[in-house]
Predict the 3D structure of the following.
Amino acid sequence: MYWPSVQLPLAFDDAWSVRLVDGYTLGDAFVRTENFGYYRPLYLLGYMLARALGPAGPFVLHALCLIVHSANAVLLTRLARALAGRSDAGMELAVGLLYALNPFVFQAVALPAGLNHLLACLFTLSATLSYVAARQSGRARYWAISLALAVLSFLANEIGVVAAGFCLVYEISRAWRLRRWERHAWSFIAVAAPGVVYLLIYPLIPKGAPPEAVQTLSDFLQRALYAAQMLAYPFAALTKPVVAGNEAAVMAAAGMTAAACVAVVVARSRWNVLLVAGLLAFAGAAAPPLARLSADYVLNAPRALYVPLAGVALVWAALALALADVMTRAGCGRRIKLLSTPALRAVGVALLCALGAAHVGSQLSLHVRVHAPITALVQTALTMPPDQRMLVLNMPEWVAPKARRFPVGSEGVIVMAPYVGGDDLVLANAGQRRDVQLAQFSTPFQPGLSYVYHPWGEQMEAGALPAALTMAARVMWVRYFTDTLRADWVGGVEPPAVFEGDAQVAFGGALYLVAHHTQPCRSGWILATRWRRAPGAQPDPSQATLSLFAQVYDAQGALIAQQDGALLSGLLGFQALPAGRDAVDRRWLMGSPSTAPVTIWVGLYDYQTGQRLPAVRSDGAALEHDALQLAAPLAAGDLPECR
């Protein structure tokens, strides 16, 4: 389910963090925390590893997220067995699946920025299981392992202090089963001791200012609503179509969840201990981040609540199993033989998992589409020498569906932030440095957008754009096309190259086409042309109305593709060609690549008068139709994407 996430590039906090640790030593991860809002050495070590691995770093970080999440699901099944006091393969499988496919875990698994939460959960669960082993065997080594793992959970993320709380939940479940509180149950205080020391020294550690919670009633209610939704998410998906408003749907679903929990407890289900343990684990682990973080932060970063979701999985596994038992006692199995207790369990868990899987698949698809421009930017930047500049127009800051489905909160993807630069993206994903300028530029025509899109970068006015374009060896423009984001390399301005013979064609005596290249791709052809102002010629304002045309004809003379407009996808007019530099224009001629011969005609015309500029070869011969005729290469083999 999550495997496509390993192909995602690093953006947002991930790209910034790779730049932050550039040049760090192993010891720096523990002492150079002044520029980071938290004390999370293990977080920094992960990005140091990615920086050292260069281009392989993003894959390794994503793979680590997936591996640790899978390990957490397995560890939670072991903890569920300890809490329930019994071995039940069906129960353990239900807990593991409900945790692995919980819709709220998606961001923590898909983005390496959540790896610190994954590791904190890994060490918290491991510390609790070691504590269980110590309580059951009394061996000193298990006590030592439990304490060491608890300390590691602190170093991964502050929420690791709840390790002692998980041990307390185990003691409560044990007392529930034995119907008495044992004297040795107070042993959980031993695990709490390192956490207390950590909390005392944490304010003294030099670090930047983290986002703080706004302590208002409105903000608190927003956080409480989000937390309630985590427990109520299956009912929320059912109530939202019939209850107006996200908040009303969540409150109705929360009421239904509370009623279901009360009913199970009153019915004295054999899964009561697991249900109560899950509720306690969720409440205890959710309290620190909800008390410390603002509602906006939580809504945009649900990864901060990854650890509490272990309790959610326990709760819903208990509810599903208890419901199967109730239905069996009601006689469903006698009426329909297929509805035995195991079958009812499987159906209930499958339905819950399907809700989570649908959300995970939807979110992962959105992330893949949104991060495609990052990959295109990095790949294009690597074709440049380090001393050249790339200009990227309208890189997305935020992309989200217009209609929020589920969960309530921000379902979109954050790509950029004020502290993230274009050079950070290249460094984080390729291990190399490039000069990348990010800018916004608005055009009067925008296709209908299927989801909300906010561009990122310096606001570029029309008058300032030509100057920025003539300073960029590569220009990339992020736009919408066929209901998705496209990041097209539209050209750039480069030092002049030397060409001989008939490679040079003069248009109107003042503009030269000095080189060209055509490449077939899956949806047509990419045509690259290189343009130069005649030596000594001054900028001519009348050239502002000139347009380049590129037309593709089949063997029968039928027009199958055409692309008109000024250079660089219409951004750079011919009157703005810089002296002493060549403008390279790349455009996509959309059509069906053919194995039969096709011809491309290239020329210039004035779009106000419709008149073509005279085209003359370097030997003085006039071109037929005042256009250069090119033989397009034939399509063969597996063609690349048109970019």
In short: Residues 135 and 184 are 8 Å apart (CA to CA).
